[in-house]
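S1.2 Input.
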Amino acid sequence: MSLVSPAGIPLPTRRTLARLALAAAMALAATAAGARDLRGDQVPAPRDTPYPGTIALRVDASDTAQGIFRVHETMPVTAGALTLLYPQWIPGDHSPTGPIAMLAGLRVSADGRPLPWRRDEYNVYAFHLQVPAGVATLQLEFQYLSPRDGGFEVTDRMMDMEWSKVALYPAGHFSRDITFAPSVTLAHGWQFGTALETASRAGDTITFKPVTFNNLVDSPIYAGKYFSRVDLNPGGGAPVHLDLFADAPKYLEMTPAQLQAHRALVTQAVRLFGAQHYGHYDFLFSLSDVLAGNGTEHHQSSEDGAGADYFSAWNDDAPGRDLLAHEYVHSWNGKFRRPADLWTPNFNVPMGDSLLWVYEGQTQYWGFVLTARSGLWTPAQFRDALAMTAANYDRNRPGFQWRTLEDTTNDPTAARRSQLPYRSWQMSEEYYSAGQMMWLAVDAKIRALTHERKSLDDFARAFFGVDNGSYVTKTYTFGDVVAALDGVVKYDWAGFLHARVDALDPPLLDGLAGSGWTLVYTDQESAYEKQYDSRPESPRHLYNFTWSIGLTMDGKGRVNDVRWDGPAFRAGVSTGATLVAVNGQAYSDAVLKGAIAAARDGEAPIQLLLKYQGGSRVVPVDYHGGLQYPHLVRVPGTPDYLSQIIAARH
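S1.3 Output.
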């Protein structure tokens, strides 16, 4: 029996409706598939075949006033279709952050005649053109326009130039199969540092030996007016140098103790891993309050940046001193050994970030440890830094209620390291510090299982210290990590890791307990934490009330994070607001501290006058827990693994 509409037209049965729905779904899927086919880019897939000839790349980087890098490439070609690519997926960024918008003025010519090009309709990093018959060489010209409103890559005193920003390369080949002959012209009289091998120098123009494109991109240049090169491995195996570039000559001065600590970093790293995967290594280190701070890993060098007074304010600036150790460890973990889904055949094939909790998390762990083993930190500074990290996962990452540690490995692509309105809830790249806390737990577990005969050092040597002297990337998977841990001591390592990486609310503090320490809070900042707020001019400056009322502020009182569901959040405080007054008094760090301390003995809320979006309002924060700052204390009657972990190796 058929149903009939009020107009007398038979209505479809339920079975007929189902058939119609299925047919519609199939038609929609077919349409969508067709749309995907039509909208796919027209870029040739990379193949492991040599690109014929050598591409000459000349960069004029002498314009320090306007920050314009002028590029000229001479590219051997054959007749037919050619696609040029601008690097998109940048190693170390773990994301598609190649600054294509900064490329300008692209012109292509052959035999003196211009050739038209068109950008791919669905891939802004790709440029298509037709090479006419009889043409064997193309001339490419363009400019890379570096930032002019902060994040400076060149100043009147120094420069950081990454080759990925100043090169186009042919599609259809692995980057290791394309050879470049690079050269650069610097500002007059400037010195430089790089992992590239110099072929010749004529005045301010340096020509480097030909190199494959993957190694070129992995070998940035720092250059500057005020320069010093320090040998960090005298009499050792592979040379290691600290290439210093400063805002003024006085900032290049090091004390003997500072020099010894930096040399010890190299010694302790080599003793940890038992191998080196570089012919030589250069820390490219800018000491500047103008050039953008940096921290990017490369196989035979690293881009590092600190404030101009890195050496001169040594006793007041321990935070951030783990930077060099972190980037150095990446030569082993991240460059030589690399997660399989982070290896790509060229710089325009998407990366996968699933094992960043090994790549970055264990590097963060060893960065802290080697900073302490070398003497760049005292044991107390190491513990205070670790206490602040641990406290974030004790009180300031409620986002683990809905996200896993593994899911945060998507953040480089999803968030692109942009400012987040509520980081404690959204979370951002927790695979660094949460990964660090997890690897502390692994280290403690190995020590306990083997009765202190083995440790994570044994894993590091077995996993990262293989194939001494080899520069060829050796990839790894989750299974490889588990197998290497099993090689140190048998245990359910897969279950151990899954419980921390793939589960909500992972037990990230059990590494402290397993190491013989526990996290406590007092109303006094550690000496290390005080250094964050004692120097308002520092880029690391932070007024930190995370663990009490639940907010942090920059040196001008601007709220840059509010702890989700913390006291300030429940009162309605928003990130981006500026704190003007506290309980009727003009805001200062000391005034807010005094108000929080006083509220502990009373019932009245703390009155915050906030300015935001052109208006102002008073927000009462009902908090009476007093000032709260994290510290580590020993657990009586337990082995002190933490002190063993940071003891220098001999």
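S1.4 Remarks. The first helix runs from residue 14 to 39.
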